Amino acid sequence: MKTVDFMRFRHVASALSLILIVVSVASIAVRGLNFGLDFTGGTLLEVEYETPEPLDGVKRILDDAGYRDVVVQNFGSETDILVRMSEAFRDDLGNEVLGLLQESATDNKLTLLRSEFVGASVGEELRDQGGIAMLIALFVVMAYVAFRFQWKFSLGAVLALFHDVIIVIGMFALFQWEFDLNVLAALLAVIGYSLNDTIVVADRIRENFRISRVGGPIEIINESLSQTLGRTLMTSITTLLVLVALFFLGGDIIHNFALALTIGIGVGTYSSIYIAANLLLMFNISREDLLPPEVEEVDDMP
Fold first, then answer.
1. How far apart are CA 188 and CA 130, in angstroms?
2. Given CB 3.0 to 4.6 Å as the disulfide criterion, which of 59, 62, 84, 266 pairs with 71?
3. Which residues on adjacent β-strands are paired with residue 85?
């Protein structure tokens, strides 16, 4: 098969990644994340309609009325609607929202089933636990790859994962997209997806270093990447097709989850080629690093 010279553009890719990371870190530091109700706290309302009402219409009414960070979803049935907003809780807020919705749905009877406050203390706890979970995941990944391959692969894989995660978070900070628990779950999924892709590439690089008798590290890495390119593209494209469908058809609740995964898979596919493999060259990977340990012969003669 034809070998693609991926490493020809490794310096351009390094510069691009550095720019993206700087922009991401600066966005997180300056603009910060637009945390959703899961992290900030707010008000939760449950409203029952007599007949089903379009969710987009309900959200538009509340947005136009000036309520902040409104999320509307069905809860149990098509007539039961759950409304979440970062509006500070007050006793008359439920009846206020109910009256507003009733004005636009004159042919529909509404009932307020519950109105309650969602505390931010839970959000802070979940945020801390989520951050700890990501750090533990990166540490376990580093230990696993070092045990299965070699420390240079381990460091390259973890730096590639860090590259993917920081860029996804940076995009959410830069464009101020809402960051909630669904997005946090998407970040953990990105780590798993990117790691799987990196492991496949690393496994082929290791095998080619062991069996190839000609060519230097650049040629062997290019050959390995070319051999796994079909699998990488097929996996990424089929996954992205599902995510695009979720992004446009999945509704507001899953919108940012699909967005984070779409960015993460795109960046993860790129990093498997131009970050993890490129770092191996920076670490001066060689055949000697990957040769299996010699087994000492035991002399059974007396």
1. 9
2. 84
3. 43
Residues 105 and 49: beta-carbon distance below 8 Å: yes
Owner of token pair 């004159």: 106
**Cα–Cα separations (whole angstroms), residue 118 to 60, 81, 86:** 22, 17, 9
Within 13 Å, how many C-alpha atoms sit on residue 153's CB side?
A: 23
Helix (H, G, I), strand (E, B) or coil at 181: helix
Q: Which two tokens stand for residue 140?
A: 């376990």
Share of the chain above pLDDT 70, in %: 92
In DSSP terms, 111 is beta-bridged to 48
Widest CA span of the chain, in angstroms? 101
Task: Please say whether the dihedral angle defined by the alpha carbons of residues 276, 280, 282 and 283, taken in this order, is positive or negative.
Answer: positive
Span 177-191, pLDDT tens digits: 988 888 988 988 898
Whether the Cβ atoms of residue 13 and residue 278 lie closer than 8 Å to each other: yes
